[in-house]
Design brief:
The chain is of the alpha/beta class. Among the domains are: 83 residues, Golgi alpha-mannosidase II (Immunoglobulin-like); 136 residues, Trefoil (Acidic Fibroblast Growth Factor, subunit A) (Trefoil), CATH 2.80.10.50. It has 12 helices and 28 strands. Strands 7-6-5-4-3-2-1-8 form an 8-stranded parallel β-sheet. A 6-stranded antiparallel β-sheet has the order 9-10-11-16-13-14, covered by helices on one side. A hairpin with an 8-residue loop joins strand 26 and strand 27. Helix 6 crosses helix 7 and helix 9 runs parallel beside helix 10. The protein is globular and about 80 Å long. The chain starts with 51 loop residues before the first strand and ends with a strand.
Length: 574
C-alpha cells in the first residue's frame, strides 16, 4: 500500500510557471439599459480561469504611491511571479484625489501619483501586466467611511462617467467594494448592476470583481448568485493573516474560518464566474510556513482568485516557492473551472476533492487540529472509488507513486498535503455518503443554506427549516443505516429523528423532529441520486421528498412530489 506523505521541508525554489494565456473577447454589443441583468450578461470571454495578481491593501492599506506600484511591478517581473500567472496589479483604496475635478471626473492623488493614472497604466502594460483599480458603488470608499482618508468620491451617481474614465486609463480590472451597511440586498444588486452595465458600455474588457459583504454580515451575499452581474464576488468578510480567528462571518477572519464558508459554495463557481474568499495573506506576517502553504493549497483547490497581498520587496525564497508552485497553480487554473467539494470537516481532518479537465482529481488533506497527526482517507470516502489503482502526484514534494486507494500524510498542525490523482480505470459515477457519520446537509443549488433544527430545540414536533450555515450542532445530523437499507437522520443536539408529521402521505406535510423508532416508516428515508454527490431524501411511507419551501433562511421543510429545493449534499463533520 502506498502512503504518500507531505515533505517537512520546502523543496528548492522551482522555476516560474509558464504564463496561462486567456483570450479576451469583447461582448457582442453594449448594454444600454439598467435594471435586471439579462441572461449570461457577463459571458464576454474574460476571467475564464480565476484571476491572478497582486493587491496593495493587505500590506500597505492607504499608504500607496506611484513609486511603490512601479517597484512592486518590477519585482513581480524579476521574481518570476508574473510568469507564474500573477499578471494584474490592483491599486486598492486611497489612490484618488479626495475631490473630483470641476467636471466631476476622478483623478489620481497628485502628491502620491504625480504622473497620473494613465501614465501608471501605461507603465504596467509595458511590463506585461494588467492595471487594476478600486472603487465603490456608494458615496464613500471604505477608508473614507472610516475616517482614514478624506473626501467622498464613490461612484454613486457617476457610474458611467467613472467607467469611461477607467477605460481611458487602460484599466483591466475593477474591484468594486460595497461600503455602506444600511442597504438591502436588492439595493446592492441594483448598484452593482449599474456599474456592470457601465463597464460593458465602454467596450473595453474589464474584469469586474465585487464585494457585497463589507458592513453586511447578515445579508447572505455568499448565497446570492452574482454570476450574471460580476466575474467574481466576495463570499465572506475580510481576511487577516491568521489561521483561525473563530469568526463565522465577521471582520478579521482566518484562513480556516473563510474556507469553511467558501468551501461548500463550489457549485456556484465556473469559467467567468468565481467565488472570491478574499486576497491571500501568504507572506504577510502572522502565520507559519505550513499555514501559508495550506492557505495557498486551499485557495487553489477552491478555484479562488489568487491575489497576493504581501510586501514584494520582502520576498523570501520560501514565500516565492509557495506563490509560484507550478503544479498547484495549474490546479487553480484548470480549464474545467470546477471548484472543490468539501468531503469531511470533523475538527481534525479537512478533506476536499476537485474534478479536473483531463479526468484527474486534486485532493487536499489538512490537519485542522493543534497537534501533529496522521490524516488519512480513502478514494471511497472521497467519492472516486472504482478504479483498479491510482497514480498519485504529491504537488508539494514533487513525487509520484501508485496507490490502491488509501491516502495518508503525517502533518504538523494546520499543514496540508495536496495531491493530483489519476484513476487507472473508470470510477463509480455516484456513491452514497457513508452511514454512521455526522453531516451538514445543504441544499445542492443553494449550498449556503443547510438543514437546521431551529433554536437547537429539544421539543417533539418542532418543524425543521433551512438556515445559513453556522456550523453549530443544531445543523449537524447523524446518518445511520437501517436493516432494510433505508436511513435514519438524527439531530446532533436534540437526539430526535427527522420525521414526517403524523405519518401523513399528503404533499405539504411538515417535516419535524420526533423520538426515534426503528419501526417508524415515516422516519425512514432513501437516498436517491440526483446529480454528482447530490441526493433526494425520500420518505419511505409516502414516496415524497424532503423539500425546503424556499431558499431564504427560515424556510420550512415539508414533503413534496418532484420540484425545486429537494436536492441535498452531505458534508461530513464527524
Amino acid at each position: 500500500m502506498f502512503t504518500p506523505r507531505l515533505s517537512s521541508r520546502l523543496s528548492s525554489r522551482r522555476r516560474a510557471a509558464t504564463v496561462l494565456a486567456t483570450a479576451l473577447a469583447l461582448a457582442a454589443g453594449p448594454l444600454t439599459m439598467m435594471g435586471p441583468p439579462s441572461a449570461a450578461a457577463l459571458d464576454n470571454g474574460i476571467a475564464l480561469t480565476p484571476p491572478m495578481g497582486w493587491n496593495t491593501w493587505n500590506s500597505f492599506g492607504c499608504n500607496i504611491s506611484e513609486q511603490l506600484i512601479k517597484d512592486s511591478a518590477d519585482t513581480l517581473v524579476s521574481s518570476g511571479m508574473r510568469d507564474a500567472g500573477y499578471d494584474t496589479v490592483v491599486l486598492d483604496d486611497c489612490w484618488f484625489d479626495p475631490e473630483r475635478d470641476a467636471e466631476g471626473n476622478l483623478r489620481g492623488n497628485p502628491d502620491r501619483f504625480p504622473s497620473g493614472m494613465k501614465a501608471l497604466g501605461d507603465y504596467l502594460h509595458s511590463k506585461g501586466l494588467k492595471f487594476g483599480i478600486y472603487q465603490v458603488p456608494t458615496e464613500k470608499t471604505c477608508a473614507q467611511r472610516l475616517g482614514n482618508y478624506p473626501g467622498a468620491t464613490g461612484s454613486l451617481g457617476h457610474e458611467q462617467q467613472d467607467a469611461d474614465t477607467f477605460a481611458s486609463w487602460g484599466v483591466d480590472y475593477l474591484k468594486y467594494d460595497y461600503c455602506r451597511g444600511d442597504d438591502t440586498l436588492d439595493q446592492q444588486i441594483e448598484l452593482f448592476t449599474r456599474m456592470r452595465d457601465a463597464l460593458q458600455n465602454t467596450g473595453r474588457p474589464i474584469v469586474y470583481s465585487i464585494n457585497a459583504n463589507s458592513y453586511h454580515r447578515d445579508l447572505n451575499g455568499a448565497s446570492y448568485d452574482w454570476s450574471d452581474i460580476a466575474h467574481l464576488w466576495r463570499t465572506t468578510e475580510d481576511i487577516k493573516s491568521a489561521w483561525d480567528t473563530n469568526r463565522v462571518n465577521s471582520y478579521g477572519m482566518g484562513v480556516l474560518n473563510i474556507t469553511r464558508i467558501n468551501g461548500p459554495l463550489g457549485s456556484q463557481a465556473g469559467p467567468g464566474h468565481w467565488n472570491d474568499p478574499d486576497m491571500m495573506e501568504v507572506g504577510v506576517p502572522g502565520m507559519s510556513l505550513d499555514e501559508y502553504r495550506s492557505h495557498f493549497s486551499l485557495w487553489a483547490q477552491m478555484a479562488a482568485p489568487l491575489m497576493a497581498g504581501n510586501k514584494l520587496a520582502d520576498l523570501t525564497p520560501e514565500i516565492t516557492d509557495i506563490l509560484t508552485k507550478e503544479e498547484v497553480i495549474a490546479v487553480n487554473q484548470d480549464s474545467l473551472g470546477k471548484a472543490s467539494r468539501t468531503v469531511v470537516d470533523d475538527g481534525t481532518r479537512l478533506l476536499t476533492v476537485r474534478e479536473l479537465a483531463n479526468g484527474d482529481r486534486s485532493v487536499t488533506l489538512t490537519n485542522t487540529g493543534s497537534t501533529t497527526a496522521n490524516v488519512a482517507t480513502t478514494v471511497a470516502e472521497l467519492g472516486i472509488a472504482g478504479a483498479s489503482s491510482y497514480t498519485v502526484r504529491d504537488l508539494w514534494a514533487g513525487s509520484t507513486a501508485t496507490s490502491n486507494g488509501n491516502l495518508s500524510a503525517t502533518l504538523a498542525p494546520h499543514a496540508t498535503a495536496m495531491y493530483r490523482i489519476t484513476p487507472n480505470g473508470a470510477i463509480a459515477a455516484v456513491q452514497a455518503p457513508p452511514a454512521n457519520g455526522t453531516y451538514e446537509i445543504a441544499l445542492a443549488d443553494t449550498p449556503a443554506q443547510v438543514l437546521d433544527n431551529p433554536g437547537s430545540s429539544s421539543a417533539n414536533n418542532t418543524q425543521m427549516i433551512v438556515w445559513e450555515r453556522k456550523h453549530g450542532n443544531n445543523q449537524r445530523w447523524v446518518l445511520t443505516r437501517n436493516a432494510d437499507g433505508t436511513y435514519a437522520v438524527k439531530n446532533k443536539v436534540s437526539g430526535l429523528c427527522l420525521d414526517i408529521r403524523g405519518a401523513f402521505t399528503t404533499a405539504g406535510t411538515a417535516v419535524i423532529q420526533w423520538p426515534c423508532g426503528s419501526d417508524k416508516s415515516n422516519q425512514k428515508f432513501s437516498l436517491e441520486p440526483a446529480g454528482p454527490h447530490a441526493y433526494k431524501l425520500v420518505a419511505q411511507n409516502s414516496g415524497l421528498a424532503v423539500t425546503a419551501s424556499g431558499t431564504a433562511k427560515g424556510s420550512a421543510l415539508v414533503q413534496e412530489g418532484p420540484g425545486a429545493n429537494q436536492t441535498w449534499t452531505f458534508l461530513r463533520t464527524g
